[in-house]
Amino acid sequence: MSEIQRPGALYQQVAAAIREAILSGEFAPDSLLPSEAQLMTRYGVSRPTVRNAIAALRAEGLIDVRHGKGSFVRSDGQPSLTIERRISRTPDGKFVMPNGDVWQEAEEPHTYRTHTTKATGRLLQLGEEEALFGCDRLLLDPGTGTRAMHRTLIPFAVADVVPALAEDPYKRSGALYRQLTEDGHKLTWSETVRARMPLPDERTTLQLPDATPILHLARVTHDSDDRPLILEELRIGADRAELAYRISADKQPARGTRH
Amino acid sequence: MSEIQRPGALYQQVAAAIREAILSGEFAPDSLLPSEAQLMTRYGVSRPTVRNAIAALRAEGLIDVRHGKGSFVRSDGQPSLTIERRISRTPDGKFVMPNGDVWQEAEEPHTYRTHTTKATGRLLQLGEEEALFGCDRLLLDPGTGTRAMHRTLIPFAVADVVPALAEDPYKRSGALYRQLTEDGHKLTWSETVRARMPLPDERTTLQLPDATPILHLARVTHDSDDRPLILEELRIGADRAELAYRISADKQPARGTRH
DNA sequence: ACTCATAACTCGTTAGGACGAGTGACGTCA
DNA sequence: TGACGTCACTCGTCCTAACGAGTTATGAGT
Question: What is the 8-class DSSP label of residue A106?
Answer without folding.
Answer: S
